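Researcher: Going back to the complex we discussed earlier. I've cleaned up the inputs and rechecked each line, so this should be the final set. Can you rerun the prediction on the complete assembly and write out the structure?
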Amino acid sequence: MKVGLFIPCYVNALYPEVGIATYKLLLSLSVEVDYPLDQTCCGQPMANGGFEEKALPLAIQFDNLFAKYDYIVAPSASCVSFVKDNYPPIMERNNHLSQSGKKIYEICEFLHDILKVEKLSGHFPHKVSVHNSCHGLRELKLSAASELNIPYYSKIKTLLSLVEGVEITEPQKIDECCGFGGMYSIEEQAVSVCMGQDKVKNHISTGASYITGADSSCLMHMQGIIQRDKLPIKLIHVVEILAAGL
Amino acid sequence: MSTRHSKAGEAFLKDKEHASWHNESLWFVREKRDKVSKDIPEWEELRELSSRIKMHTVSHLDTYLEQFTKNAEANGVIVHWATDASEHNEIVYGILHKNNVKKLVKSKSMLTEECHLNPYLIEMGIDVIESDLGERILQLMDLAPSHIVLPAIHIKRQQVGELFEEKLGTEKGNSDPTYLTRAARKHLRNEFLTADAGMTGANFAIAATGDIVVCTNEGNADMGTSLPNLHIVSMGLEKVIPDLQSLAVFTRLLARSATGQPVTTYTSHFRKPRKGGELHVVIVDNGRSKVLRNKDHVKTLNCIRCGACMNTCPVYRRTGGYSYTYFIPGPIGINLGMLKSPADYYDNVSACSLCFSCNNVCPSKIDLGQQIYKWRQDLDNLHVADPTKKLISGGLKFLFTKPALYNTSLKMAPVVNIMPRFMLYNGLNEWGKGRELPVFAKESFTELWKKWKVK
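Model: Rerun complete. Updated structure for the full complex:
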């Protein structure tokens, strides 16, 4: 099994520790991991902003770059869901067949569904509030969305519970959006900030010391709010907890 | 970078207390919806069935509309066809005029709102009375609905107290809901008794029987149609469904999705005119048949107007119905407005963080979020795309299609961290108005990876 690691642009520049944790975790599970150097961005920011055609060359570039791997794994639910759900229609309209869409996995999804991890050696003695990102939840289906009448599950919580010492909670309005939404955060900044403030408040009310989730983009948005308003809670990507001690 | 929605939304949020109350009031409805939907084990199957019945019906719309008309006419109903809003209004006025109607009492109908029927009839000299309590409050205030099911959700009871004091002569300072409701009932009772005609919308039209089905909680549609001899129904042509078995699917979904009730208090079937009376049905197209040909947006015809997408939408809850420029707000309104006229209503397309919660609550499984995403792709061709967003997208494409340049920028990026604060946080930085900027790592993942490789 050969895995191509996809480290989305903003994770690469802002949160390399998330990439490192992903790499170490996969390595510790005896996966052969490679990081193709010419990767950049999946194109989601432009497409969600209304410029899908600007994502097309990136989709083709991405597809070629990751062609030789069995799986593509990334620590960002939103980027993964873009490649999975949006690459095929964007590329097919332009007479390309997307190969990446079928083999890309968000790291938690990969650990849970493909590697079927049942044991982790880490230790993280803190209370964490799980942040269900919209695209992780409603597109990748990492957990059961609160709107649906389906049996409850949460791949993120299942994996977190393998780490010794973690106390898991979830906020009120359990899967309401944090207001990031890519360019939404600047086009409708006042509404976006209000959503972010409400979301952080709900996380803080759980009494957790950390907000954790599978999407660095939501965490980045909430970090901006927390720092501006000097709020008493920290942020950590879920993969950093899963890789604790490695 | 802004739209009419983002500006109106920002203004709505200025009154923090009111905005938060609005948000929580609608969330309360969403939670009620979650709770009752979970009492039905087959809920998700019902949604799937509803979606399929709707798609089936709109794919055979000619057949079902003909069947409906044939059966309704056999029942003694007079059926009219209106191509657009003005034809609809003229038909309605024609019926009223012929019957010498001075006063018309209406129950809630978003279609008559869409056709601007009330101002037209008032101009023609008809006394038009809205009889749904929320609608009546708004009519007395000269305001439009801000939500399709809870039209006056943005009005507090104290405001209603003041309004009734002025218009209905209720006690000064009394805003007790029961007291105000009783006052409204007394006032409306007189309107029902003195009306010459009643008008309703239609939640469903049953092809197999010719029935018109109207769902209300206040019984106002029944009062308005039981007293006068003349009943006019205004219905969009997508309201037809095959038979009573299909209706059972929708009545189980409608109230649960809309308000979290198991069923609306009244589900009334109108099949025949009353003895000596007339029952007219005006079937309105007004752009709907055009949507049938639109592959990307045809599913909007599935909508049963429950309003669940508004109640769950984090943006709608925080910005209110009036921040949207189309008369139907929220996720479904963004889409319907664009179908009506992109040039007039493109400002609403910004009102979405693409969280997709609307898709999950929709009882007929409309892909509301994906449709909004698709509209965004059209804005540039319509020449209404935001120039800043276009510039940013172009710049990102330039950078990201050149891996070497991208890798160099990754190395340079930390320079931003040491830029003076006034350069980072100013009026131009929309992000920085309410949030701190993220900090670039000293070394990017790519840099670190290369070092390991060297090791």
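Model: Worth noting: Chain B touches chain A through 77 residues (CB under 8 Å).
Researcher: Good, that matches what I expected from the previous run.
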